[in-house]
Amino acid sequence: MTDTPAEHAATEEDDVFEQKSVRMAKRARLIDESASAADGPYPVSVAVTTTIPAIRTEYGDLEAGAETGVMAGVAGRIVFSRNTGKLCFASLQAGDGSRIQAMVSLAKVGDDSLARWKELVDLGDHVFVSGEIISSRRGELSIMVEDWHMAAKAILPLPNLHTELSEESRVRQRYLDLLVRDQARATVRARATVMKSLRQTFDGQDFLEVETPMLQVQPGGAAARPFVTHSNAFDTELFLRIAPELYLKRAVVGGIDRVFEINRNFRNEGADSTHSPEFAMLEAYQAYSDYNGIADLTQQLIQQAAIAVHGSTTVTWADGSEHDLGGDWSRISMYASLSEAAGREITPETSLSELTALAEANDVEIPEHATHGKLVEELWEHFVKQHLTAPTFVMDFPVDTSPLVRDHRSVAGVVEKWDLYVNGYELATGYSELVDPVIQRERFVEQAKLADRGDVEAMRIDEDFLRALEHGMPPTGGMGLGIDRLLMTLTGLGIRETILFPLVK
Length: 505
What we know:
alpha+beta; 5-stranded mixed beta barrel; 15 helices; 505 residues
């Protein structure tokens, strides 16, 4: 008769409790027997002379049975242990996942030290070992231990290294995920590589990196519901920012012609495989450019990041599939692509009633406080979005959904905005920025009317931002790129996998 899932979980919990009790006793013994804090279960430091990755790099090709005569002191977490009488073996793992074998023999360490190893050391413990770098008779790179110390006693056991953690466990206990899964560590390193690449590309084009406020007296720069908080010091309502856009544009007004920021945004909205309430965002603004120039820059940023991570613009996902991000990416019109997919012409002049009828006929959800632009975008997502797997710039959006964007220079009723789609989701957005303060005020007023009708995502009138524009902002191209989604594009993972510690309920 097999255990039910609940009984199995209870058995596992009992086993963990028992192991914790045993390990707590070992911790107490280490404290009692230590001559000083340096000898206890949590010493302030250990005398490492090198690292496990460095030893593997220099001595990884040793022949079986070879001795180097080189002494080293290293530390790592025990992920495998085997005791065989007069000789004990342990695999020590470094933070990058590389390992080295520690061989603890009676001949080298003596009776007392070997006995203490057997009695006090468990899987998951951090230990320091010092001794000669050798290759075992089986050809495994090893330290022949002459001295060892506990570096940090683990009170809870490691998960089974041969059993895959559930997705929920990986997200909630990322520290365990990093310990046991190569892909988790690779994703963290890929993200760091991407950030470095983005900054190098910007630096090569004379952009300056800045930081703008996270706490704002009013949210702006995007159509999104904000998180609301309260400042005790100022006794006022504040908002976690939904976008840095309006502050970065102030910087352009102030003469920082090429500016970018990589930081967190917060939107009090749904969470799914492509959305997180807290996410990392890159925004950049380039004076005397437009949405075409900023599209070129965005393509360059992403392709350089792909090369930095994969060595090529052809990226290999975690599932082994390959995806080509190279070449010049397609640019299609939102209205033209929608018209073709829907089988009828749709233009900026198409009435709201016609769009509503088309939506109802195709079971497309009609958004609350529907406008021409909102319905066009909903219909476009229904008919077109899922077919865009290769990187594609979708150009020229409805004016009423883009209050911060300049009117198109030659097409009435649309603005110079693009969204970049890859694999069916939006990765980035870019504008020819609206710099006319009079028109910007008119757009804000229209947004305020939507807010009065109950649209919680509508923007508010930002008088300080308008005052900045009135001092003169040059023609500018701007873009926003989701860092988490960029990692999705480069790895094929879901958004919760690309964020080191995602928000979970």
